[in-house]
Design goal:
This protein has 260 residues and is α/β, with parallel strands linked by helices. It contains 11 helices and 9 strands. The two termini are 26 Å apart. Bound molecules: adenosine-5'-triphosphate (ATP) and magnesium ion. The site of magnesium ion has 3 residues, from helix 1.
Length: 260
């Protein structure tokens, strides 16, 4: 049996007090196994990012148990060596005053022992090529000199540099056009295949989730209302919220379901 990476049992996360209390994650129970790509799919404010932050150790559950490899998350630095994220806004993740290349190299700072300088340079080049960017294209460039789509690829390049065991990808395709989106999704699958990475992919679009995932979790108002294989969930949806998401797939992305 595959090892469990995440194991959530009756997890609840609330914010605020009294009448103003918001239940962002409402009694979820699930596991995510080593090497799986699982998508969290649901509309705005349904609790996807809060759950993602729980996986990163940034939010603790208000009640219930949330385990990473069988234990609660206590040592954040150790956790982030293994679990990394790509978030919605790539510009907020890079410092505007340093070159892209220097920041990709700085990613090695997370390791206890850094590789040699030559090895770091080589790994940065490889990572850029993996996201279809020639190293010369970003040479001497700063984040503000790149487009949103290019920056999103830089975030993914940084993941390739870091090679975490687990990647939490929160809407990593939101700022890019269909062609670049295809590359990013294929690239996520490449990370899983080549580096045996476990990936949690977060999106509004069940069509994209269908294309990349081993399993889908459908979220609505903090709850996981349905979970299963992409085929099960899309051909025999059990929840009305899944049916709604299937109806909401943007026309440009319908082809994903046909393509698989
Ligand atoms: N730090 C916080 N303090 C208070 N409320 C929060 C906090 N973070 C999230 N929430 C609330 O929790 C709910 C779920 O938010 P979350 O960010 O998880 O939504 P989401 O599913 O990621 O939505 P989107 O698709 O728009 O990114 C929302 O009602 C949000 O306002
Ligand atoms: Mg979100």
């Amino acid at each position: 049996m595959q090892n469990k990476i995440f194991d959530a049992e009756n997890c609840v996360r609330t914010f605020g007090h009294g009448k103003k209390i918001v239940t962002a994650v409402d009694d979820v129970t699930f596991d995510i196994k080593d090497g799986e790509i699982v998508s969290l799919v649901g509309g705005s404010s349904c609790g996807k990012s809060v759950l993602a932050k729980m996986m990163l150790g940034l939010h603790k559950p208000t009640s219930g148990n949330f385990l990473y490899k069988g234990k609660p998350i206590t040592d954040h630095k150790a956790h982030w060596r293994e679990v990394q994220s790509v978030f919605q806004d790539p510009f907020s993740c890079f410092n505007q005053f340093f070159t892209i290349r220097s920041q990709l190299k700085a990613a090695f700072g997370i390791y206890k022992e850094k590789p040699s300088n030559a090895e770091m340079e080589e790994r940065v080049d490889e990572s850029l090529m993996a996201v279809n960017v020639k190293p010369s294209e970003i040479e001497g460039k700063y984040p503000f000199e790149l487009s949103g789509g290019q920056m999103q690829r830089m975030l993914l390049a940084r993941i390739f540099v870091l090679r975490p065991q687990v990647l939490i990808a929160d809407e990593p395709t939101s700022m890019v056009d269909a062609c670049v989106r295809a590359n990013i999704l294929d690239y996520l699958m490449k990370l899983k295949k080549e580096l045996h990475m476990t990936i949690v992919f977060i999106t509004h679009d069940i069509g994209l989730a269908y294309y990349v995932s081993d399993r889908l979790f459908i979220m609505h108002k903090g709850k996981i209302v349905e979970q299963g294989s992409p085929e099960e969930v899309t051909t025999k949806p059990k929840s009305e919220h899944t049916v709604q998401l299937l109806e909401d797939i943007p026309d440009v992305n319908r082809e994903w379901i046909k393509k698989k």
